[in-house]
Amino acid sequence: ENMRLFALLVAVLAPAIKALAGPLPARRAFRASSVLAKAAAGRFEICQNKYCRKKGAASTLRYFQELSEGVDGVEIVVADMSHTEHGCFDECTMGPNVRLDGEPQTDNGKVVNGVKDAAAVAELLGVDVPKGYK
Asked: Do 109 and 103 meet the contact criterion of CB atoms below 8 Å apart?
């Protein structure tokens, strides 16, 4: 009896709820520009712990080092999160992870996840992707 009443209630209310809520926005892939202005950070910390390295963090660090050459006010460092339980930003499943404008041995700064290729690095640095990079 309760299940039939519940099914009837769902059948009656579902269209009204959908009409009030409107269409759901399309899910977009992360783009750094959606949360950051061009050249938004001066200090970039790239996680080099086990899970981020498995996801390509060594290449991410190399891209940062190469693409930041000649860019004023930019500091590229390996993240020092030794004060945390895991020694990282604790966002391992979404790596490689990069922290913007954080301070060593603190938890401040914005962490950007999934920075895997030169295009993502260039976008964070506010530079164009040079020819020869993906």
From this structure: yes
CA distance 89 to 99: 8
Distance CA 122, CA 67 (A): 7
Residue with the larger pLDDT of the pair 33 and 98: 98
Q: How far apart are CA 84 and CA 9, in angstroms?
A: 49
List, in order, residues 6 or more apart from 77 with CB less than 8 Å away.
43, 44, 45, 46, 104
Q: What is the pTM of this model?
A: 0.68
Q: At what angle do helices 118-125 and 57-67 cross, to 10 degrees?
A: 50
Q: Biggest alpha carbon distance in the chain?
A: 73
In the block, residue with structure tokens 């040079």: 130
Give Cα 50 distance to the centre of its chain.
Answer: 18
